[in-house]
Amino acid sequence: MTQDQQNLDPYVATFKQGHFMSLMRWPQLDAFWNTLREQADDSWYIYAIGEDAPEAPSSREQLLTFIDRIDKLLHEEHEEDYCGIVYADDHEHPQFIKIFDPNNLGVSCGFSENPPLPGWVLSKMKPINIEEALRPANNRRRWWQKIFD
Q1: Radius of gyration of the chain (CA)
Q2: CA distance 24 to 34
Q3: Closest to 97 in 3D by CA, of 21, 6, 34, 41
Q4: Which residue in 60, 57, 120 sits closest to 86, CA to CA?
Q5: What are the pLDDT digits (tens) for 5-44?
């Protein structure tokens, strides 16, 4: 384990290094949402990347509303015959779910050193500001800025 891996916040470590499986087909996503609905409680954090990380978990009703609305958005805006933009750590008993914005996919599948951030994260872990946590170290930013000085 590298020093950087040892110093990661547990949320960031799970976000970056957790094992996530795609929900590739629309029927698979539908079944997953039904599983999540059945297990819904008020222990889930709903985090829209780019907004402040939530301080408290959402209510069961907020989670159910979010599932309905995000499902509708994904079906309307992801004009593919497959889904492939929702990833979960476990399809039967999820704890951490990444949902990519259909309008900002970049290279969300496959390998990339700098994959796009998801649009939303559902987790049982209290989130931190992921954009801030994943910023390059200040010395890298200073190096980058010196190129144009």
Answers
A1: 17
A2: 16
A3: 21
A4: 120
A5: 446 899 999 998 889 999 988 899 999 999 999 999 999 9
